[in-house]
Amino acid sequence: MNGNLAYGLGFVFGIVIVSAIILIPMLIALTKDGKIKRKYDERQEAIRGRGFKIAFYTMVTMNMLYGFFQVACKELPIEPSVVVFIIVFMGVGVYAWYTILNDGYFALNERIPQTLVAFTIIGLVNLLIGLANIMDGTIMNEGVIRFESISIVCGIFMLITVLVILIKQHKDKKED
């Protein structure tokens, strides 16, 4: 498979899956009067707020580090677009992992198994796309990591999130 074709198909597939994961639960969560059914208690809202704050400072720190290395090294062996996506993934990941571990990610009436399945599928599909890009030799060009490596990064972050959910579930079962 051509690297550009794999990249294009992966991009389209990713948009479709993410849209489905975001839009379908939102549509299901709407009641007949248009109000959202997903309920978070005050403690969860506070945890989510702290999660956003931690994620924001993570992204600021990562941007500062990137700027420092950009100045110090002049040329980094990675395309800037890859760094930008990694920084975004770090912010989203930190938010998700913090809120999952502190019971703020899932609404009180939300079903976790659906999310686990979706995150696992997204992670594995992205890793497969990344593997195809590795086999095509499109991940690196003249020693520079290219945008085609984003699939691997996304897959790793999604599977880490699945692992965090499983660890949290295991911990909760032990406490019961």
Model description:
The chain has 176 residues and is mostly helical. The chain has one domain (3-175). It is built from 5 helices and 2 strands. It has a two-stranded antiparallel sheet with strand order 1-2. It is globular, with a radius of gyration of 18 Å. The mean pLDDT is 84.
Number of helices: 5
Percent of sequence in beta strands: under 5%
What is the typical, i.e. mean, pLDDT? 84
Tell me the distance between the termini. 50 Å
- For the biggest β-sheet, the strand order reads 1-2
Structurally, how many domains make up the residues? 1
Which structural class best describes the helix and strand composition? mainly alpha
> How many strand segments?
2
Poorly predicted sequence stretches spanning 5 or more consecutive residues: none
Supply Rg. Answer: 18 Å
Largest sheet: 2 strands, antiparallel
Q: State the order of secondary-structure elements, H for helix, E for strand.
A: HHHHEEH
| Fraction of residues in helix | over 70%
Assign an overall shape.
globular
